[in-house]
UniProtKB/TrEMBL annotation:
It comes from the Bacteria. Residues 6-180 form the NAD(P)-binding domain. Signal peptide: none annotated. It comes from Streptomyces gilvosporeus. This is Nucleoside-diphosphate sugar epimerase.
């Protein structure tokens, strides 16, 4: 049995499908099973992971856990991890971030700090572990969807910022291989998982334009306005500012090099952003 946190999310939904295809038994956690729309073959279970009570039955009988900070945040992740140890779970795959570099730089920004803290807890848990350190997610582009649909314009502080957008299905495929770990090769590995090419914000927007068959313009806005637009309950304004400034620093050089982890772990190349844009064209139309 494999327990998937954040099972209705970008990675989780893809991961549940992939694990079922591979013949695994899956327990999919969601706050609302009636709206989850997950395959009937999965055991879909109600769980609000910010509530520490009642975690034991969620993890009982499981061999592996996919832990996603998006499902309740950093604190909940550590509590769930602790419950997994008590329940006898053997292996954890943590959805981490390329921002974690195992250097003092990990203490200098919100994203790295948060993921590094949970990585430390995982290392200390005694479980077998694998980290999936994803680069910028292709799904971040969904944040432009309403604006593209309504105005045909994307407003961004750094149109020339260079990222390596990674498809959620590639993150899920790497996580699935590590969760099943049929070769024993994935314990203790921190995989930096990126897309196959460096693309600027403007280039990503152009790909979306091609996918929907119309021109989409990029309009430059201030860093402050951009931080305001992405701040929210899980991303305080100060952290949003840090993030926008960090994107600014990637205008002159890519944030991260392209990695071959998807191919090494899954045996097939990472999916290009153009494919992601075609698959999500309806979100932007
Ligand atoms: N965006 C990036 O560029 C990036 C890069 C590197 C790493 N990351 C990491 O990836 C994470 C995002 O992964 P994702 O895109 O797959 O997430 P996502 O699509 O936002 O999915 C998160 C899921 O968590 C569930 N959830 C939310 N609150 C919960 C709670 N209190 N208890 C239980 N479940 C809860 C929700 O499902 P229900 O509504 O069904 O409960 C939701 O579908 C980030 O948080 C970050 O840690 C992101």
């Amino acid at each position: 049995m494999i327990v998937v946190t954040g099972a209705t999310g970008n990675i989780g939904r893809s991961l549940v499908g992939r694990l079922l295809q591979d013949g695994a038994q899956v327990r999919a956690l969601t706050r609302d099973p009636s709206r989850a729309g997950l395959p009937a073959e999965a055991e879909t279970v109600r769980a609000d992971l910010t509530d520490a009570s009642g975690l034991a039955p969620l993890l009982g009988g499981a061999e592996a856990l996919f832990l996603n900070l998006a499902a309740g945040g950093e604190r909940s992740a550590v509590v769930v991890l602790d419950a997994a140890v008590k329940a006898g779970v053997r292996r954890v795959v943590l959805n981490s971030s390329v921002a974690v570099t195992d250097s003092p730089a990990d203490e200098t920004n919100f994203i790295a700090r948060m993921h590094a803290a949970v990585e430390r807890a995982v290392r200390a848990s005694g479980l077998e572990w694998t980290f999936v350190r994803g680069s910028n997610y292709a799904t971040n582009a969904l944040g432009w969807a309403a604006s593209i649909r309504e105005t045909g314009v994307v407003r961004d502080a750094h149109p020339g910022a260079q990222g390596v957008p990674v498809h959620e299905a590639d993150l899920a495929d790497v996580a699935a291989v590590a969760l099943l770990d049929r070769t024993g090769a994935h314990a203790g590995q921190a995989y930096v998982v990126t897309g196959p090419e460096v693309l600027t914000v403007a280039e990503q927007v152009a790909e979306i334009g091609r996918a929907v068959g119309r021109e989409v313009r990029v309009e430059r806005i201030s860093e402050d306005a951009a931080a305001e637009a992405i701040a929210g309950p899980h991303l305080p304004k100060a952290a949003a500012r840090e993030l926008i400034a960090m994107f600014g620093s990637t205008v002159d050089r890519p944030a991260w090099p392209v990695s071959d982890a998807v191919e090494r772990v899954t045996g097939r190349p990472a999916r290009p952003f153009a494919q992601w844009a075609r698959e999500h064209a309806a979100d932007f139309s």
